[in-house]
TrEMBL record:
Keywords: Metal-binding, Methyltransferase, Transferase, Zinc. This is S-methylmethionine:homocysteine methyltransferase. GO terms for biological process: methionine biosynthetic process; methylation; S-methylmethionine cycle. Its cofactor is Zn(2+). Gene3D superfamilies: Homocysteine-binding-like domain. InterPro entries: BHMT-like, HCY_dom, HCY_dom_sf, Hcy_S-methyltransferase. It comes from Haloactinomyces albus.
Length: 291
């Protein structure tokens, strides 16, 4: 199964300036039809899953724009509805597609690159209390799965495990790694063990890490949890939080995706700087690996 690539990457390619604390969530307010168009582009490229424009959307972030909680909740629901609309518009080809509601980490809402560090100085209980209201709204919108993604450390994973209890929607949990450790320095085995006994978490893996970090993570995630493994790294470029830009060469390829499937990944895709063209390449590689 193929998930999409970088939603913000596609929106920027369509001419939108997302140098904003709300990132792609800004277009939930200003130009929602463009989000639907970006979802369609990934579906047409071969993606089976659309990930919503809610990664950096939060009640705090919307409040900083003068948007109250009721309107913020409506915008969060809109993120799911836009992906569902794109799916409905593609229904004529008979393929089954899914919508994943993106639950980005607390650090993403800070818009300062903290999701690449973790350890925010906030307790697990405080993180759970921060995540739960947004998570509840997104779950009520009816996505197929909750994408607990780009998690930088075990504290936030513990908080998310608490927050999703009883929400009624299955979730996947993906970490943001640096080599063989979370961004906060915990081992992969320690990190994935958090999901092993959590029934609401139905798949585990990594996202927004380097493609080079994926193979080892696939092995550890599968061995630690026994659950399906998902991998959707970024292009391999590095994020400079001070300059708010990506630096370095891309290392993302369809050949790597074929390797991920061989090594046990059940769902593959891309994150930042991964375009519909890239998704088309890995979709083709995935179909070849299945033959």
């Amino acid at each position: 199964m193929i998930t999409d690539g970088g939603l913000a990457t596609e929106l920027e390619a369509r001419g939108h300036d997302l140098s904003d604390p709300l990132w792609s969530a800004r277009l939930l307010v200003e130009d929602p039809s463009e989000i639907t168009a970006a979802h369609r582009a990934f579906f047409r490229a071969g993606a089976d899953i659309a990930t919503t424009a809610s990664y950096q959307a939060s009640f705090d972030g919307f409040a900083a724009r003068g948007i109250g909680r009721q309107e913020a909740a409506r915008l969060l629901r809109r993120s799911v509805e836009l992906a569902q609309t794109a799916r409905a518009e593609m229904a004529d080809d008979g393929r089954k597609r899914w919508v994943a509601a993106s639950i980005g980490p607390y650090g993403a809402a800070l818009a300062d690159g903290s999701e690449y560090r973790g350890r925010y100085g906030v307790s697990v209980a405080e993180l759970a209390a921060w995540h739960r209201p947004r998570l509840d709204v997104l779950a009520e919108a009816g996505p197929d799965v909750l994408a607990l993604e780009t998690v930088p450390d075990t504290d936030e994973a513990e908080a998310l495990r608490t927050a999703i209890a009883g929400c009624g929607i299955p979730a996947w949990l993906t970490y943001n790694l640096d080599g063989n450790h979370t961004r906060a320095g915990q081992s992969m085995a320690e990190a994935f063990a958090i999901a092993a006994e959590t029934p609401e978490i139905v798949a585990v893996g990594v996202n927004c890490c380097s493609p080079d970090d994926v193979p080892a993570a696939i092995t550890v995630a599968g061995e630690t949890t026994g659950k399906p493994v998902i991998a959707y790294p970024n292009s391999g470029e590095g994020w400079n939080a001070q300059q708010r830009t990506w630096v370095g060469p891309s290392r993302y390829s369809g050949e790597q995706a074929r390797q991920w499937i061989t090594e046990g990944a059940h769902i593959i895709g891309g994150c930042c700087r991964v375009s519909p063209t890239d998704i088309a390449e890995i979709a083709q590689a995935a179909h070849g690996a299945d033959q």
